[in-house]
Structure prediction request, 411 residues.
Amino acid sequence: MKKLLSLFKKHQEWRGNCINLIASENVMSPLAERVYLSDLMHRYAEGLPFKRYYQGLKYFDEIENRTIEKFKSHFKANFVDVRPISGTISNLATFSTLAKKGDKILTLGFQGGSHVSHEIPGAAGLLGLKVFHFDFNEKILNIDLEKAKKKILKIKPKFIVLGGSVILFPQPVKELKRICQKTKTKIIYDAAHVFGLICAGFFQNPLKEGADIITSSTHKTFPGPQGGIILGNIEKDLQKKIQKKVFPGVLSNHHLHRIPALYLTLLEMKKFGKSYARQVIKNAKSLAKELYNLSFNVLGKEKGFTQSHQIVVDVRENGGGDFVAKLLEKANIILNKNVLPGEEKIDVIHPAGLRIGVQEMTRFGMKGKEIKQIAKFMKEVILDKKSPEKIKRKVIKFRKSFKKLKYCFKA
Prediction:
């Protein structure tokens, strides 16, 4: 027991002294954490609010129902399911509703920013779907629209998947909707990374632009508890089919303590989301520009580098993504390696690039001056080849001034 508690303590201290630039992470507010760590974490619920297979849920049913209605209202959706316990589970439930084994789907592919669940190694492959890929235009870092239209007409996929794990710019949802209507193809937008930016009105709104369904996680730019969500404007019959795929299809209990934390995070985003999202995007652009000025090969210069929380850096000249990410970790700078658009041979173990996200450090109050300092730390480690241990000491000192969360209610 002592060893485990010691490891736990070390982790807490270490990550609290790191600059976290993982694009898929964030931290909940103290108030959201307070309701998360509650009696609900011990309880069980199967089914939908007020239609359960367990007793003891008379108050929780109200909590979940209020959460559903609040998300419906905010996103102007006629359907919301908050039960998926991850974005991947959201995708699995939705994919399996819209297609069966052997059906064709069209995704971005890893080089275009797909999440693994969209591809053969993940949920799509598990379901036996035939996965085809959009052509990706490396110059604009987006889908080749004209080729996409032709491919949809040729393949007639059951659904296409937009959004993804690497998404720097809005995608042509509106333009693809017209073609998808001709082939009766549904549009799924995996908003996991940009859900908070969409929530705040600072990124494209997929539902407004024609997507049928949004799947998402709830813990990236949307700083809630780890979990998933499905939203859409779809017919009642399809709503019921998705609900049945969620339960009893792909999960049983849905980790009830997430739900009040999810509700409170939405309230925080309604109050603080605009200022938060605005600063996130500003910080991402600033970090990209500063790294570029310091001689890093940052993608997307011609388009302003990014319109989301993410930036992508080509580090093949510096040893590759795996080497650089591990080197920076030694300096308490945490980010992840990533496949780049246009890599001739996909190697997810040793990719050419880095994916960087600023949403968590923004939440701790970092802005322009601090963002420039982060770029300088990265330069010292990667380009100047200074000792990571020496830079680590600087990072720990730097991080001490940014321990308190912003853009949230007080506990």
In short: Residues 30-265 form a domain with the Aspartate Aminotransferase; domain 2 fold (CATH 3.40.640.10).
